[in-house]
Design a protein that fits this description.
This protein folds into two domains: 177 residues, 3-Layer(aba) Sandwich (Rossmann fold); 170 residues, Glycogen Phosphorylase B (Rossmann fold), CATH 3.40.50.2000. Helices cover 43% and strands 16% of the residues. Strands 2-1-13-3-4-5-6 form a seven-stranded parallel beta sheet, with helices on both faces. It is elongated and about 60 Å long.
Length: 368
C-alpha cells in the first residue's frame, strides 16, 4: 500500500495536483513523503476515531483547502468517511486486498464514500455486496516500466547472501507473514532441490515469521541452499539477480512484486488467489498453483529451471504483458481522472482549467 501511494503521488501531474498527507505516526515512510514534496501531518488512526483526530482532520481540510480525501485501509477509510460528512468533502477509499472488509462496506453505506479496487475479485465482491457500479471503480496496480525492465544478469544479490557468482537463484519477494505463505516456499525448495541441485533459493523481505523460518531452514536441513536476504532497497538489481520469481501467498489483491518480476523479464510461479489470476497467463508467462501446494510449486520450479528455452520465452512474454496491461502510467492516469471527476461532482461550479486539486492521502497503521 505504501508503494502504491508513493508511486501515485510521484506520478500525478504536478500542475494539476498538490498532495497533503495525514499519517498515523512518523516513520521512514513519512520521511520519504516529505522528500518527494508532500506536506505531512500526524494524527492517531484508531478503530474508533477520537475527537483529536476529527479536530485535526477538519481543521486540515479547511486550512489546506482540501478538495478530495483519498483513504487507504479500513481505519483510514473510517476517518475519511466521517471527515467527508463533517466537511462535505468527497472521499475515495482504495481497497488494496482481494475483497472488501465489512467495515469498508459499512462506511460506504453510512458515509457514501466512493470505492476503488485494484483487483477484479474485489470488484465483483463489492458488486455482490450491493455497491453500485456508479460508486465503484476498478483500477489495477501498475509498475514503472522505466525502472522495472529486463536487464543483464547480475550477481548483486549473490554478494548480499555470500553465494558463488553465477549460481541460479529462485526468489520469494514479500513480507515474511502468514498470508504470504513463506513456509510453503521453504517446503517447495526442499522438494525441488533434489531435481535442481545447482539452484539456491532466496527470501527477500522481513516480517513476523522470520524467526520461525530461520528455525525451519535449520530443522529441514536447508541451510546450504536457502537464504534469508532481509529487506533490500535496490529491487531492479534483485530481480536481475534471479532466474525465477515465486509467490506462495494464501491471499493477495494485485501484488506489485509479481508484476515487477514480470516487467523485469522473469517467469513467475504464483498461487491462484485474488488478482494474481488476472496477471499471470498460465503456460505463457508462468504457472499457477493452489495455495499450500508445495509439491506443485516444486514441480513448476523444476520444469522452468530445467528448460532454458521455456524460461526465456516466459520471461519475454511476462515483460510484454506487464508493459501492455499493468503499466504505471495507465494506473495513474485512470486514478487522476477519477479524482478529477469526484472533485467536479463535489462542487457547485465547474473546475477551471488552471485549478489546482489538493488531495490528502490518509494512511493507516499497518494491520497484522
Amino acid at each position: 500500500m505504501e508503494t502504491y501511494v508513493l508511486q501515485l503521488i510521484e506520478n500525478l501531474p504536478e500542475n494539476r495536483f498538490n498532495v497533503v498527507c495525514l499519517c498515523p505516526s512518523e516513520s521512514a515512510f513519512t520521511t520519504r513523503l516529505r522528500e518527494i514534496g508532500c506536506t505531512v501531518y500526524i494524527t492517531p488512526f484508531a478503530d474508533e476515531p477520537d475527537f483529536l483526530s476529527l479536530q485535526i482532520g477538519t481543521a486540515l481540510i479547511e486550512s489546506e483547502k482540501i478538495d478530495i480525501i483519498h483513504a487507504h485501509l479500513p481505519n483510514a477509510h473510517l476517518l475519511a468517511g466521517i471527515l467527508s460528512k463533517l466537511t462535505q468533502t468527497p472521499a475515495l477509499a482504495t481497497i488494496h486486498g482481494r475483497c472488501l472488509f465489512m467495515r469498508d462496506l459499512e462506511i460506504h453505506r453510512m458515509m457514501h464514500t466512493e470505492i476503488c479496487v485494484v483487483s477484479k475479485s474485489a470488484y465483483f465482491h463489492a458488486l455482490s455486496l450491493g455497491i453500485t457500479s456508479k460508486n465503484l471503480k476498478y483500477i489495477p496496480n501498475g509498475v514503472d516500466s522505466k525502472i522495472f525492465h529486463p536487464a543483464c544478469k547480475s550477481d548483486y544479490l549473490h554478494s548480499k547472501i555470500n553465494v558463488e557468482p553465477g549460481t541460479p537463484l529462485i526468489g520469494f519477494i514479500g513480507r515474511l507473514s502468514y498470508e504470504k505463505g513463506p513456509e510453503v516456499f521453504l517446503r517447495a525448495a526442499k522438494i525441488a532441490h533434489a531435481k535442481i541441485p545447482a539452484c539456491h533459493f532466496v527470501l527477500v523481505g522481513e516480517g513476523p515469521m522470520r524467526e520461525r523460518l530461520e528455525h525451519e531452514i535449520s530443522a529441514l536441513g536447508l541451510s546450504g541452499f536457502v537464504h534469508l536476504a532481509g529487506l533490500q532497497g535496490n529491487m531492479p538489481k534483485i530481480y536481475s539477480s534471479l532466474e525465477l520469481s515465486v509467490s506462495t501467498s494464501y491471499s493477495e489483491g494485485m501484488p506489485l512484486a509479481v508484476i515487477e518480476a514480470m516487467a523485469s523479464g522473469l517467469p513467475v510461479i504464483a498461487t491462484q488467489v485474488g488478482g494474481v489470476v488476472d496477471v499471470i497467463e498460465v503456460g505463457v508467462t508462468g504457472f499457477l498453483n493452489m495455495p499450500g501446494d508445495d509439491e506443485g510449486v516444486a514441480r513448476n520450479m523444476a520444469a522452468i529451471m530445467t528448460n532454458p528455452k521455456l524460461r526465456k520465452s516466459m520471461g519475454k512474454a511476462g515483460h510484454k504483458r506487464a508493459k501492455e496491461k499493468f503499466d504505471l502510467k495507465n494506473s495513474v492516469d485512470q486514478t487522476a481522472r477519477l479524482l478529477m471527476s469526484l472533485h467536479s461532482s463535489g462542487r457547485s461550479r465547474p473546475l477551471p482549467d488552471n485549478a489546482t486539486l489538493i488531495r490528502p492521502s490518509v494512511l493507516p497503521m499497518p494491520r497484522t
